[in-house]
Amino acid sequence: MDRDQILSANAVRRLIASGKHIVISEGRVLQLDGWIDKHPGGKLAIMHMVGRDATDEMNIYHSTETLATLHRYRVGFIVGHWTNLTPPIRGGVHLLTSDENTSDDASDIDDLSDASTLCTRTTSLNIDPARDEALRERIALGSDLDGQEDGPLQVPSSGRNRGSRKARSLITSEAYIDKVMQGEIDDNLRDYPSLDETTQRAISSAYRQLHQEVKDNGLYRCRYFEYAKELTRYLSIFALFCTALRCGWYLTSAAFLGLFWHQIMFTAHDAGHRGITHNFVADNLIGLFIADFCCGLSLGWWKSSHNVHHIITNHPEHDPDIQNVPLFATCPSFFKSLRSTYYDFQFVWDKVADFTVAYQYYTYYPVMAVARFNLYALSMHYLFTSPRPQSRITSWVRPTEIAFIVCYWLWFGYGIVWLTLPDWPTRILFVLLSHMITMPLHVQITLSHWAMPTADLGDAESFPQRQLRTTMDVDCPEWLDFIHGGLQFQAVHHLFPQVPRHNLRKVQSLVRNFCKETGIKYTIYGFKDGNKQVLGRLAEVADQMDMMLQCQKYMAETRISGLH
């Protein structure tokens, strides 16, 4: 194969249609089939980049040494700007064609990335094309459709809502969901820069200049003195835990243990992103020791999930961090029983979801208080069901994880809970309190995304715009940074995930300037207001679900669509 050949867009499409994992990076056409099962970041991270120009994503997630090896997978080059295709994992359909002379624009019947057709793209809303025209006529709530058999019905609002609402017009539940989803798309198209090719290319160009500025300013260099201070704090808290436990102050010791877990996991997050030493082995050992040995959580599971979260942030079908049905729903897309490409599982919307989501505004903090138990379950599921790493680079990770987690349950489960604590009431209270103390960490994790848009604006949107559109920062004074552990700079972190957290405040000022220059809205709230935003979104989605149920009830009563 000629690695220096120039490939047309049609040729690249045919490779993808034949099942090849083709990614574009800096004009190179990369075929990653031989690497996808060995990729330390997981195969899904690559699958979400198939058919796309992944230059920005690859540059910020990989070291210079790794980027230098990409020539091994090159099968050719492209000339000019690449128009992104929809990856097959996201529903892209790419047909094999044999006419090499057919123009790309005329033959690209499967390319759904054209921004001019974004608002009318029915596949993004799961609208049946046969019903599309009828839905468009009925999609506006409150329209004058009286007298039609399936027209709207005036009903009072639900008494469950926080605050009074005027009577609303009911349409079919499917049309109502489509209306709400399209409304968020329209709002995002209005509030953020245009998706036309010129604008998004300019944003990507400005982002690459910003990335170079971050490197030139030395902001990728870790300040190890800051970690010396972190280590001193961790050891002090752990010493207080041991002292209280030895004195028989069991609940006090539980509180200190929970605080220790809360604080030390911030460093596990840094290590998982290779943001400490920037060395794969060293940072993984640090992360494994903290996450698995000290906290009983699988770093491998977290990296598998978190890498996808960073690549396709806040997409209901693909981002596992917002897939929490039936406990929570952060957008109406879940009402349609969507399928998760991460879990390969159908999140069925049923009566249980109807009940739990109706009260999610109230259950948010209680669930966050015990969320750590769910992380145990996800860690165990990952370690015993996910495929073993195929690369020699990562072959040692899985057995190390298992050994460290066994050690965790020996020192915590057996040594402390079983041997040290005197009776079952004390054991139960100790476990609950120590785990509930970590609640702020779980709130912090959800804070920066759950209130942000989940609309998919298509393949034309640049990487930096999507990250800033779906992520918020949390404002706090510098002396409180240790409480938030760097997670308060989530928007900045999503743009530069390997920048050490102690440098994120400096990068934040550069990102603010970038947003002013490009016109991308930079979202930042104080911790209190950020919580209000999340609760507001949970309440809003609960109200949307209530309206959907009223639509379904009306259809059942009037036997519309064959319902009885």
TrEMBL record:
Pfam families, per database record? Cyt-b5, FA_desaturase
* Cellular localisation: Membrane
Q: Which Enzyme Commission number(s) are listed?
A: 1.14.19.18
Identify the CDD domains for this entry. Delta6-FADS-like
What InterPro entries is this protein classified in?
Cyt_B5-like_heme/steroid-bd, Cyt_B5-like_heme/steroid_sf, FA_desaturase_dom, Fatty_acid_desaturase
* SMART domains registered for this protein in UniProt: Cyt-b5 (SM01117)
Q: What class of enzyme is it?
A: oxidoreductase
Question: How does the protein associate with the membrane?
Answer: Multi-pass membrane protein
Q: Does the keyword Secreted apply?
A: no
- What is the predominant subcellular site recorded for this chain? membrane
- Which segments constitute the Cytochrome b5 heme-binding domain? 4-79
The pathway to which it is assigned is: Sphingolipid metabolism; Lipid metabolism; sphingolipid metabolism
Residue ranges of the TM segments: 234-260, 281-302, 364-384, 396-418, 424-443
Is Lipid metabolism set as a keyword in this record?
yes
User: By its UniProt entry, which PANTHER family does this protein fall under?
Assistant: DELTA 8-(E)-SPHINGOLIPID DESATURASE, FATTY ACID DESATURASE 2
The text of the family note is: Belongs to the fatty acid desaturase type 1 family.
Annotated protein name in UniProt: Delta 8-(E)-sphingolipid desaturase
> What species is this protein from?
Exophiala sideris
